[in-house]
């Protein structure tokens, strides 16, 4: 009965996390790069200008994460590219033309606007001095420079139309190929740590760094026309939103997109302001721009971070302490329990988060689930160690008392093990606070949001805006548990109890 109640409570916690993801009438998602965020903000504001409530969930990840979220109804709209759809999402159908892509999407309950007006393809870029020194103008020229160091985005490394296919098509011999965040790659290129990188042809940094964009002389890269994908049910649920999205068709050319990207990446304007200015200038739509101050942003991110950590730790404590007790009382199953939670702890935190996406989608639920699993080992092991470390004479004395096994556990054994249990909870809490920053990668918010946005925009201040409060929260949690130990653990146990 108690196990069933505990399971119900844990399920309720995850349901509460899922409830926080329920947004406005229309939810717009965007990928984790500046142009994607800009297009998401433009679409969101266009929908709001039509009098429909809309929410923008920015920087949710890459192509597959966003497309799956669209199919599952976790978002209603996001910006995508025809080449990406053909090569990444619909590759098994061998589609090429826009009508073929639209028909394949319709079969999956998804519609698309007409192209927005620009093509943002891949290319390979080098610093002009490096390209001139090596005599490289075309992609085929790379064949005679096997020692070149390449910094490519992880998505480009894994895509069907990415590095592996490019290397085969051109017969490229380079082996020093590193996976880098797109924005960090520009810094690595400028610092001379890499010789070439993949770029998007509408990147503002191309002009800023005066990059040499290598000619695709075999016409390997296909067209990537931008368009907006939306769920088919949006046409009946919010027809005005679809009309607003279609007003954006053909409104953005390559020059204008590069200018918009440059305002964000180089001039430091917010995506909100840039999107609002574009809509007012191009469509005569006025939308209010509300920019949160530092205090407001910190308060919002602190609440989000505390939600993730609090739910994960509460669920973790409810599960880990009983598991530790079982491991102590039953040596056989106990070894299995300790081994399993130990294996979970060895899984990289980002990988564990990604594993949760197919099961729980995006936003808070998968982040809470991953953090919950990561929190278990210190608490399970410390509970087990604390109980096992109770001196044998003390255990024998407790067994001589007229108490049931349950009463003995609650009133004698767990209190004696409490210093070790609290130490495990403290360790798990501090670890969870740090790992919770990764939740921002799938829209869960928290202190990770300004950190990843700061990396994307090369804004050290934004990075500190997330990193410093996260460190401060971890320190505060540690001090709070030290105070709690002084309150609830008898002084004699604090001095002599197992650690």
Topology of this structure?
Blueprint: H1 2-20, E1 26-29, H2 34-49, E2 54-57, H3 63-72, E3 77-81, H4 82-89, H5 98-106, E4 110-112, E5 122-126, H6 128-134, E6 150-152, H7 154-158, H8 163-170, E7 177-179, H9 182-190, E8 196-200, H10 205-208, E9 212-213, E10 226-231, H11 234-237, H12 239-246, H13 254-265, H14 271-283, H15 294-329, H16 331-346, H17 349-360, H18 364-388, H19 392-400, H20 405-435, H21 448-457, H22 460-488, H23 491-496
Parallel strand pairs: 1-2, 6-7, 6-8
Antiparallel strand pairs: 3-10, 4-10, 5-8, 5-9
Structure description:
The protein has about 500 residues and is an alpha/beta fold. It is built from 23 helices and 10 strands. The protein has helices spanning about 1-20, 35-50, 65-70, 80-90, 100-105, 130-135, 155-160, 165-170, 180-190, 205-210, 235, 240-245, 255-265, 270-285, 295-330, 330-345, 350-360, 365-390, 390-400, 405-435, 450-455, 460-490, 490-495; strands at about 25-30, 55, 75-80, 110, 120-125, 150, 175-180, 195-200, 210-215, 225-230. The strands form 3 sheets. A 5-stranded mixed sheet has the order 7-6-8-5-9. Strands 3-10-4 form a 3-stranded antiparallel sheet. The longest helix is centred in the middle third of the chain and has 36 residues, at about 295-330. The two termini are about 30 Å apart.
Give the structure's gist in a few sentences:
With 499 residues, the chain is an alpha/beta fold. It has helices spanning 2-20, 34-49, 63-72, 82-89, 98-106, 128-134, 154-158, 163-170, 182-190, 205-208, 234-237, 239-246, 254-265, 271-283, 294-329, 331-346, 349-360, 364-388, 392-400, 405-435, 448-457, 460-488, 491-496, and strands at residues 26-29, 54-57, 77-81, 110-112, 122-126, 150-152, 177-179, 196-200, 212-213, 226-231.
């Amino acid at each position: 009965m108690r196990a069933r109640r505990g399971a119900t409570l844990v399920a309720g916690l995850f349901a509460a996390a899922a409830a926080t993801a329920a947004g406005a009438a229309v939810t717009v998602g965007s990928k984790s790069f500046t142009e994607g965020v800009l297009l998401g903000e433009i679409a969101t504001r266009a929908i709001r200008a039509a009098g429909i409530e809309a929410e923008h969930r920015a920087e949710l990840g890459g192509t597959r994460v966003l497309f799956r979220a669209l199919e599952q109804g976790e978002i209603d709209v996001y910006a995508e590219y025809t080449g990406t759809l053909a090569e990444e999402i619909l590759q098994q159908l061998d589609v090429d033309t826009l009508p073929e892509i639209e028909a394949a999407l319709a079969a999956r309950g998804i519609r698309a606007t007409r192209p927005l007006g620009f093509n943002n393809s891949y290319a390979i870029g080098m610093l002009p001095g490096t390209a001139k020194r090596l005599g490289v103008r075309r992609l085929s020229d790379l064949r005679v420079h096997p020692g070149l160091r390449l910094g490519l985005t992880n998505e480009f490394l894994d895509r069907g139309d990415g590095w592996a296919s490019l290397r085969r098509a051109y017969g490229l011999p380079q082996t020093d190929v590193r996976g880098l965040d797109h924005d960090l790659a520009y810094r690595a290129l400028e610092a001379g740590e890499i010789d070439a990188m993949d770029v998007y042809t509408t990147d503002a940094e191309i002009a800023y760094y005066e990059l040499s964009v290598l000619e695709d002389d075999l016409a390997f890269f296909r067209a990537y026309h931008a368009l907006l994908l939306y769920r088919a049910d949006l046409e009946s649920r919010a027809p005005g939103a679809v009309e607003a999205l279609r007003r954006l068709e053909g409104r953005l050319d390559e020059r204008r997109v590069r200018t918009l990207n440059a305002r964000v990446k180089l001039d430091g304007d917010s995506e909100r302001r840039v999107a609002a200015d574009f809509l007012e200038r191009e469509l005569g739509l006025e939308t209010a721009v509300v920019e949160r101050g530092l205090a407001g942003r910190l308060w919002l991110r602190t609440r989000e971070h505390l939600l993730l950590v609090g739910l994960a730790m509460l669920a973790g404590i409810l599960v880990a302490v009983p598991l530790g007790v079982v491991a102590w009382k039953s040596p056989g199953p106990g070894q299995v329990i300790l081994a399993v939670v130990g294996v979970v702890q060895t899984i990289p935190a980002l990988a564990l988060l990604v594993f949760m996406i197919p099961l729980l989608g995006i936003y808070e639920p998968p982040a809470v689930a991953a953090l919950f699993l990561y929190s278990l080992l210190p608490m399970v092991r410390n509970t087990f160690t604390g109980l096992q470390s109770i001196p044998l004479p003390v255990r024998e004395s407790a067994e001589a008392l007229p108490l049931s096994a349950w009463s003995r556990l609650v009133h004698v054994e767990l209190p004696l093990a409490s210093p070790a249990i609290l130490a495990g909870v403290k360790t798990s809490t501090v670890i969870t606070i740090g790992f919770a920053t990764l939740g921002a990668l799938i829209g869960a918010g928290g202190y990770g949001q300004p950190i990843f946005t700061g990396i994307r925009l090369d804004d050290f201040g934004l990075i500190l805006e997330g990193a410093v409060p996260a460190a401060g929260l971890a320190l505060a949690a540690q001090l709070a548990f030290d105070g709690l130990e002084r309150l609830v653990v008898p002084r004699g146990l604090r001095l002599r109890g197992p650690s």
